[in-house]
Amino acid sequence: ILFFTFPKYILVFQLLYKHPQVLQAAKELNTQLNSCEKDVPVGERFVLSDKIVLIYANNVQNLSFQARLTATLPYPFNEELQGIANSSGIPLGEIVIFNIFYEIFTVCTSIVAEDKTGKLYHARNLDFGLFLGWDVKNNSWTLTRELKPLVVNLDFQRNNKTVFKSTNFAGYIGMVSGVKPDLFTLTMNERFSLDGGYVGIFEWFLGRRDGMWMGFLTRTVLENATSYQDAKDKLAKTRLLAPAYFILGGKNSGEGCVITRSRTASLDIWDLDIKKGTWYVLETNYDRWKPPLILDNRRTPAMKCLNQTMQENISLPTIYDVLSTKPVLNKLTVCTTLMEVYNGHTETYLRECPDPCSPW
């Protein structure tokens, strides 16, 4: 196992985009994004999001358009995006589109498992960069490689006390994973659907703004939810811009679930049920009652590994091994994050998938 270190930042809510460490991260972000833009061929950058990007790219340098769009985003997110742009020197429009990517391109595997003593573990592989440029020389997805230096550990504090922790990309103000110490853990996976993120984002551009951005919702829940049940209710009921899977873990036995969301409602909640033998829940990017795409079946090998591990042997190291099994680990995997709710323990590892390795 290779261990990598990367920056850790303590962020104070009221001064988020003025904090010296954030200013430094913003400068590093500028360098990395410039590298991404240079290395990814123009024709390959936005294969799946071409319609959104065409609309946006035609206006991205228009200061009036940038200001109008940013103003539509809820507080404090609009001010944070402006602050990152000011601090990094990156045009505001590029910062906004960088954040939009995470609403529609996050391909992941998330697990919540309970051991024989009732202790809960939460882990995920973050896979990102599908169809956004293939590096023939390095046999890897270009954006996946370029994003690895942007991985940071964040500790959000208020009054010198941790509110929640997250592993994130510098410059992204939503949350794809996080832990609220002694209360709950949370990850978000993209859900592929015909009524997908593109529809909600188009509606937002056109003026309908009654849905919430997924990353903003997860961050709001991590900041404000007061219990596992409170977080579960908010994730299940809040109207969204895009379909999603929310994988939630608590602190008590049986507190773990996968919430399958459409943009408007909760379609399914799959709970841990120890009495019935359900000691883990696992989500990739497909509804659990449907077979996964034959070209992207990470679910079956992950479940096979968990079943072979057995509940009496489950731990963060054994879950790491599950997430290191190909094709659960693949060319898109940026990092693996392991979390325990007690004391808000998190650990994250940047990943490489040696050949032969599945592209996704």
UniProtKB/TrEMBL annotation:
Keyword tags: Disulfide bond, Glycoprotein, Hydrolase, Lipid metabolism, Lysosome, Secreted, Signal, Sphingolipid metabolism
Q: Which Pfam families match?
A: CBAH
Catalytic function, reaction form? an N-acylsphing-4-enine + H2O = sphing-4-enine + a fatty acid
State its location(s).
Lysosome; Secreted
Name the catalytic site residues.
C108 (nucleophile)
GO molecular function annotation: fatty acid amide hydrolase activity; N-acylsphingosine amidohydrolase activity
Pathway(s) this gene product operates in, as recorded in its UniProt entry: Sphingolipid metabolism; Lipid metabolism; sphingolipid metabolism
Q: What is its main location?
A: other
Which ranges carry the Choloylglycine hydrolase/NAAA C-terminal domain?
108-344
Q: Which InterPro entries match?
A: Acid_ceramidase-like, CBAH/NAAA_C
Which cellular component, as a GO term, is one annotated location?
Answer: extracellular region
- What is this enzyme's EC? 3.5.1.23
Q: Name one GO biological process term.
A: fatty acid metabolic process
Q: Which PANTHER family match?
A: ACID AMIDASE (PTHR28583), ACID CERAMIDASE (PTHR28583:SF1)
Give the record's family classification.
Belongs to the acid ceramidase family.
Record-given protein name:
Acid ceramidase
What is the scientific name of the source organism?
Answer: Buteo japonicus
